[in-house]
């Protein structure tokens, strides 16, 4: 069996490879693709320097692959050109299963961030390749607990519940799909136990013994705040829109799919905050 992991030099990609190794997949059967290949040189797998902008290199890297973990690009606005290259290369190489990391409810979501994911899912379906979609919700790592402790938490999600989990949880779930038969056509809505940002602030306060508040700014003011602390306008708009969507349930999914793949409870808010505070 040969498993190719794209975006392998990013946080999620490295963790996915580590999860595959932990599940007993031989290092000789794993190929990691990415730009900064030195970041995964220590894992003992086959490493190839391949970018999403290079369709010929992608096709060559996919040749003979039984399964490909297609980790979505991180550059909003450039994803479709990149993703089109990946899907075309996978089709040309006739890979056995294309596993794509998407976003919750990609087919119906009104989040701006969902647009490219929905288009990519459609592209994959139209390709005729066997596929599985991992619709990952928010990462806990998106939130800086230390900054929250010092300055409080800010956002625009109101009392909407957010189903966050750790990158390691999502990586382990991906490895479970890649190492289990009968995955073609499966769509997983993945996220941990839901919480509101007020509950997040309360958990930090409870464990630290210090007062921590959540301030809901609304979408426009939150975007302005993000720009004010140095984020690019386009990225700030996407984050603010994601919070707007979260207020309406756009980042909430039941925990069942994730915990079924993990075979254990997803990392809890309490556990994540505790670990972050110790760090």
From TrEMBL:
Pfam (any one): NAD_binding_10
NAD(P)-binding domain residues: 7-180
Species for this entry: Paractinoplanes bogorensis
Lineage top rank: taxon: Bacteria
Name of the protein in question: NAD(P)H-binding protein
Alphabetized InterPro entries for the sequence: NAD(P)-bd_dom, NAD(P)-bd_dom_sf, NmrA-type_oxidoreductase
Leader peptide range in chain numbering: none
Organism ancestry: Bacteria, Bacillati, Actinomycetota, Actinomycetes, Micromonosporales
PANTHER family reported for this sequence: NMRA-LIKE DOMAIN-CONTAINING PROTEIN, QUINONE OXIDOREDUCTASE 2
């Amino acid at each position: 069996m040969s498993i190719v992991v794209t975006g392998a030099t990013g946080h999620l990609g490295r963790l996915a490879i580590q999860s595959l190794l932990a599940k007993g997949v031989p290092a000789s059967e794993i190929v990691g693709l990415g730009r900064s290949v030195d970041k995964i040189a220590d894992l003992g797998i086959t490493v190839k320097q391949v970018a999403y902008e290079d369709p010929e290199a992608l096709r060559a890297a996919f040749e003979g692959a039984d399964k490909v973990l297609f980790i979505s690009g991180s550059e909003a606005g450039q994803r479709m050109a990149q993703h089109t290259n990946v899907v075309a290369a996978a089709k040309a190489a006739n890979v056995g299963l294309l596993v794509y990391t998407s976003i919750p409810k990609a087919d119906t979501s009104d989040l701006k961030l969902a647009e490219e994911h929905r288009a990519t899912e459609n592209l994959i379906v139209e390709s005729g390749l066997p596929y599985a979609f991992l619709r990952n919700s928010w990462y806990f790592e998106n939130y800086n607990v230390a900054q929250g402790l010092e300055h409080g938490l800010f956002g625009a999600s109101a009392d909407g519940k957010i189903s966050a989990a750790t990158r390691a949880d999502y990586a382990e779930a991906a490895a479970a799909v890649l190492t289990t038969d009968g995955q073609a056509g499966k769509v997983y809505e993945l996220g941990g136990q839901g919480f509101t940002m007020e509950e997040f602030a309360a958990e930090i306060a409870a464990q630290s013994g210090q007062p921590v508040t959540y301030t809901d700014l609304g979408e426009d003011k939150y975007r302005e705040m993000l720009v004010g602390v140095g984020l690019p306008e386009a990225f700030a708009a996407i984050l603010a829109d994601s919070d707007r969507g979260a207020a309406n349930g756009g980042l909430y999914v039941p925990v069942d799919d994730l915990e079924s793949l993990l075979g254990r409870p997803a990392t809890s808010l309490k556990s994540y905050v505790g670990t972050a505070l110790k760090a």
